[in-house]
Amino acid sequence: MTATDDVLVIQGDGIGKEVVPAAVRVLEATDAPLRFAAASAGDAVAEERGTPLPQETRERAADADAVLFGAAGETAADVVLPLREAVGSYANVRPARAYPGVDAVKPETDLVIVRENTEGVYSGIESEITDGVTTLTRVVTESASRQIAEFGFEYAAERDASVTVAHKANVMRQTDGTFRDAVAAVAAERDAEYETMLMDAMATDMIQHPESYDVVITPNLAGDVLSDLAAGLVGGLGLLPSANVGSDGGMFEPVHGSAPDIAGEGIANPSATLLSGAMLLDHLGHETAAENVRSAVRSVLSDGPRTPDLGGDASTDAVTDAVVARL
Ligand code: NAI
Ligand code: MG
Questions:
Q1: How many Å lie between the centroid of ligand 1 and the Cα of residue 256?
Q2: Which pLDDT value is given to residue 247?
Q3: Torsion 218-111-294-311 (CA) sign
Q4: Where are the alpha helices (DSSP H) in the chain?
Q5: Could you say which of 6, 75, 157, 307 has the lowest number of CB atoms within 10 Å?
Q6: pTM reported for the whole predicted model
Q7: What is the pLDDT of residue 249?
Q8: Which ligand is in closest contact with the Cα of 261?
Q9: How far is Cα 29 from Cα 23, in angstroms, rounded to an integer?
Q10: What pLDDT, on a 0 to 100 scale, did the predictor assign at position 189?
Q11: Radius of gyration of the chain (CA)
Q12: Which element (helix H / strand E) includes 66?
């Protein structure tokens, strides 16, 4: 008998309330043995309960085998960062690939951003030292840098993929110097090859030559920005899934936010969240179900129906129905 995995579902705000139920429907249509429970977080919860992330949600996230998350609105930083911490995540994996049938700026794009998920400028250590003068402390540790490097090189080795490392150690000499040196040490231990690029130059090169990138290991902020850039290359944020990987649990969420401009209209593209669901299945060891979901999503992206962000006129539900029908 296969053990059932507990998945905590947190819809959050805006289109999170539309794309997450779509993903649950698709996961339920696979034969993976999952048990779903719901918890809440986000702007609406903050208004009702005075905090966007109730302690109970945080604890249940830590206990679950996996968390499926939509998006939060203005409270995103107070929800997403602590939730990633609650599931013990140190790596944020964001694949960006173009799909047949979807208009992409660069159809040859097929890369994965492996982003450090715990520190850098997202340390949360900010202050106003005097009126009109604010500071932020960028934290970079050798241990977290080694951890993301080890994860990234292993991820690349499993896929026979090349590695490029983004940094800006020419300016942030100490912090990105630590990052760059830790990556170099891990690569030497593994006898792994890789290239480095300054992260600003990488932004230009990724647009001009996305085909030359496979696995890209980045510090926290750089990975956030470069993955949205990669989304632009393949047809938009509606397509990019992500996995927050930890040593034990994990949280799976679309790269996009709550999209208040289209929330409530039932036209959000569910693909990013469905593909995040596939990453959740992979994480729990249900590789066949994961591949089935990916293949169903690919097929619907290719044949339609499509949501308006991809030039179609279909609803979130119609796209989800089509994916479920293919399972
Ligand atoms: P966003 O990702 O919500 O939206 C950017 C643009 O992409 C909008 O035009 C939106 O309509 C479009 N878009 C995003 N996802 C889409 C989908 N699935 N289908 C079709 N179109 C889609 O980013 P934005 O506008 O910068 O932020 C909106 C809110 O989301 C803010 O309150 C922000 O704090 C929050 N946010 C939350 C995140 C999270 O919870 N992980 C991540 C990013 C933003
Ligand atoms: Mg982002």
A1: 5
A2: 81
A3: positive
A4: 16-29, 43-49, 55-63, 76-86, 142-158, 175-190, 199-208, 220-234, 271-283, 287-303, 316-326
A5: 157
A6: 0.95
A7: 86
A8: 1
A9: 10
A10: 98
A11: 19
A12: strand 66-71
Name which of 147, 52, 141 is nearest 92 in CA terms: 147
Q: Name every protein residue with a CB atom under 6 angstroms from any ligand 1 atom.
A: 15, 19, 71-74, 76, 80, 237-238, 253, 256-262, 268-269, 272, 309
State how far the Cα of 17 lies from the Cα of 62, in Å rounded to an integer.
Answer: 22
User: Which bound ligand lies closest to the C-alpha atom of 221?
Assistant: 2
What's the number of CA atoms in the CB half-sphere (13 Å) around residue 34? 31
Say how far apart CA 147 and CA 141 lie, in whole Å.
10
Mean pLDDT of 28-54: 97
Q: Which pair of tokens denotes residue 109?
A: 């794009």
| pLDDT, position 3 | 84
pLDDT at 326: 97
Confidence of residue 124 (pLDDT cuts 50, 70, 90): confident
Q: State the closest ligand 1 atom to the C-alpha of 72, by its place in the atom list counted from 1.
A: 40
Helix (H) or strand (E) holding 167: strand 163-167
**3-state SS of the chain: helix, strand, coil percent to 5?**
45, 20, 30
